[in-house]
Amino acid sequence: MRRRLAALAALPILLGLSTSAQAAPAPDPVGDLIVSALTGAMPGTPEFRLKASLYHAGAKGVGALDSLGCRVVAMRTVAIDSKLIPRRTKLFIKETVGLPMPDGSRHDGFWYASDVGGAIKGEKIDLFTGHGSSSMKPLMPLNLAKLTVSKVGEFKGCPPA
C-alpha cells in the first residue's frame, strides 16, 4: 500500500506537472473566451485584483455627484485611482454578479469608473452602494480584500442609471 501511495505522489513529477502551491495556473483559453463573450472584453484583457471599500450617500464628504458632475448611481458608480484606471472606464467585477440591486433585479457585474477619492490610491476601488449605511448590506459577504476587476470598455457622458 505504501509503495502505491508513493507512486501516486510521484506521478505529477514524472508527468512534468508542478506540485508547488506557487505554480501559475494553467492557461484556460476556453474559459477566457466564455468570460469575454459574457463581459464584452477581448480575450487577454488585463484583469486586476483590487482591494475594495464601500461608500454611501449620507456619509461624511459624499455628495450626490461624482467627479464627472454626474449623479452617483447605486451599485454602478466606482471611485478609482485615475492613474490606474481612467475615468469613463466600464468595468466588470465578477464577484458582484447576482447581487441584489435596489430595484429588486440582480446585478450583471458592470460598474462605471466615474468618481475619484482622496483615499483611493493604487490598486484600490470604492464601490457606491446607495443611500445610508444599510445600502452596504448586500456587498458585505464579498471578500473586499481582492475583487476581480476587468476593463471592458468606455462610456461617454454619465453612467447609465
Name the descriptors:
single chain, 161 residues, alpha/beta, Barwin-like endoglucanases, 15% helix, 25% strand, globular
Note down, in words, how this protein is organized:
With 161 residues, this protein is α/β, with parallel strands linked by helices. The protein has a single domain, classed as RlpA-like domain (Barwin-like endoglucanases, Beta Barrel). The protein has helices at residues 2-14, 29-39, and strands at 47-57, 77-79, 89-93, 110-115, 124-131, 147-154. Strands 1-5-2-4-3-6 form a 6-stranded mixed β-barrel.
Helices and strands in order:
Elements lengths: L1 H13 L14 H11 L7 E11 L19 E3 L9 E5 L16 E6 L8 E8 L15 E8 L7
Parallel strand pairs: 1-5, 2-4
Antiparallel strand pairs: 1-6, 2-5, 3-4, 3-6
